[in-house]
Amino acid sequence: MSSRFDTEGGRIFGVRTDLVEQFVNTVRRDLKAKIGVVIVTLFLLAAIFAPELAPYDPMAQDFAPLQAPALSSETPLGTDSFGRDLLSRLMYGARISLGVGLGAVLFGAVTGVLLGLLAGFYGGWVDDLLMRSVDVMWAFPWLLIAIMLVSIFGQGVWNVVIAVGFAYIDDFARITRGEVLSIREEEYMLAAESVGLGDLEIIFEEVFPNTVAPIIVQFTVLVARAMLAEATLSFLGLGVKPSTPTWGSLLGQGRDFITQAWWISILPGVLIMITVLGINLFGDALRDAFDVREVDSE
Amino acid sequence: MITVSTDSPGTTGTTAEPTDQEPLLRATGIEKYFQTETGLFDRFFGEPTHVRAVDGVDLSVGERETLGLVGESGCGKTTLGRVLSRLYDPSAGTLEFDGDDITDLSGDALKRLRKRVQVIFQDPMSSLNPRKTAGEIVGKPLEVHDIATGQAKRDRLVELFDEVGLQESHLDRYPHEFSGGQRQRIGIARALAVEPDLIVADEPVSALDVSVQAQIINLMKRLQDKYGLAYVFIAHDLSVVKHISDRVAVMYLGRIVERGKKRDIFGNPQHPYTRALLHSIPRVDGERKRNESLLEGNPPSPIDPPSGCRFRTRCPEYLGDECAEIDPELEPVAGASGTVAPPERVEAISTDGDSSPEHVIACHWLGESSERRAREDPMS
């Protein structure tokens, strides 16, 4: 009898070990989950270790411009219009693109989920106040809000993260609130109260874990949108510094040469697509691992 | 005794039960109204409407005693149970526990009360958080009330699981891996963990198979003897209550209509509603046809209860104006002029027909002459 109970209280970076165990099991069993994990891991490693792994300085204009990709040459993925190595630029670009993509959604998720939990749990005027303020965000296109935030706080990675993530607060708040409203009707809420738990304990121990599944799905969908949003901002010159490589800015710059040098636009585009796919598969695996019912009934 | 019933003139505080010693829990004039959901327009211009789920209830539970609380769906018994366990705040009335007023407790004082009053819920699936293991669910009260942690907590959990008929290996399983009966055992273990004095059991067996019902009731009875528990046992079925209760209260539309010792209710039922409920218990011999029910239709809406006696719209003994105009109060049966002999079809626990002093009913019928009652008794 190997007891998970023996490891009760065991946590890795704040995550319960039995959940980690379930996640590993899900990945082991499911090919799609494997693909997702491989893609996400690979891209994250490439981004984190870009300075070590990239063959050249992404800013150095060392080569002939507009060279087509040729795996045997010095520049396997070709060069851009300034003669910079595209492989190195893509690897460095992954740092900003993944960073902004994940960071922005994380910002939106943490803020939105908190609002949704409070609004759904307390109801009444708290609900009205929080959700009506969230509704106001619907009145503005996200791009206008992002432009406003960037022009107030200036350019920079963190400001882009917040500017992009701000637009996702309402999505997370609404989803979470809806979940909380249905969970609030469950008898285990009364049971928690009768046990003597306080409001915060009930919100974070009883309610929150039961809202996780749709939040994860929304998270993975939005990461893709956030990467595109970063590309949009970069394209408009509102993102990070124009010369800094990001997938979005590479894609935008390549646009001018699309007829002569397709690879400058296509390659970052393909990378964005693969990343989005990988994150979605990864998210599905996470969701399955969190869903105790599904995992155990198989 | 003070009664806080504001807009139900028929209720007075004089019907609290006579008991020899101070009861563990005493409820006086308990009311619980829910405001109905209203739109924006109604909120500003309309009259607020209320569902009178519990509308003036007095009752008490003694130490180590089981009070059975019976009534149809929607009669307010669950709401009353939640008020008694302070999961809901009463709209009016007072609650005393062990001599202390607990009506307005909050914060730490309420938490201390939670250690003495526990709840077993109706739906064994919904009352267990699907993302927590059985061990976590039952262990939570031990943590919250600083009873045990670490190895001591684990030992206590094993002991508790053993007590309710579960095994140590069940500690790590999730609720959906258990059967309904086992889940209810987890719910019982959770309630038992803090060693409370009183457990409010809200239809603890209604969702279970009949064979499992008996097991759970026997378990609860055994735990009561061992730990000296008092129960408020809520059910919609008198036959369930019969095995475990010392005293029984019958509810109809937010009020208690008859209350007494078990032998009063089962051996000498006086209120037409109680008699109808007893009559509706299925019998093994199949002598009675299915449609031969004394009760017709559904209970009226608790938003707008009938004038006078609330049961009059369905009462087989309807007497006329008196029932429609005057809201009957709980009055002792003993000494009343016309009590009827126990009906033959009801399996009598006591056949002498005498009522204990605490046997009370709220019914105008009680004052009628024995001849008329004998003539019109539908059960004889």
Task: Tell me what the structure shows.
The complex is a heterodimer of chains A (298) and B (380). Helix content of chain A is 70%, strand content 1%. With 298 residues, chain A is mainly α. The longest helix of chain A has 37 residues, at 86-122. Chain A is globular. Chain B is of the alpha/beta class. Helices cover 29% and strands 18% of the residues of chain B. Chain B has twelve helices and twelve strands. Chain B has helices spanning 40-45, 77-84, 107-114, 134-144, 150-163, 180-192, 210-227, 238-244, 262-267, 272-279, 321-325, 370-376, and strands at residues 25-35, 50-61, 66-70, 92-97, 100-101, 117-120, 198-202, 230-235, 247-252, 255-261, 331-332, 360-361. In chain B, 47% of the residues are buried. The model of chain B is unreliable at 1-19 and 341-352 (pLDDT under 50). The chains are: A mainly alpha (298), B alpha/beta (380). The A-B interface holds A 1, 3-5, 8, 186-188, 190-197, 201, 206, 209-210, 290, 292-293, 296-297 and B 82, 85, 87, 110-111, 114-115, 118-119, 121-123, 126-131, 133, 135-136, 140-141, 144-145, 154, 169, 171-172, 174, 176-177, 187, 190.
Summarize the structure.
The complex is a heterodimer of chains A (298) and B (380). Chain A is mainly α.
Largest sheet geometry of chain A = 2 strands, antiparallel
Note the gap between the termini of chain A. 20 Å
Number of E-type strands of chain A: 2
Share of helix among residues of chain A? over 70%
Ranges of chain B with pLDDT <50 over ≥5 residues?
1-19, 341-352
Strand order of the largest sheet of chain B: 6-7-8-3-9-10-12-11
Chain pair sharing the greatest interface: A-B, 25 and 34 residues
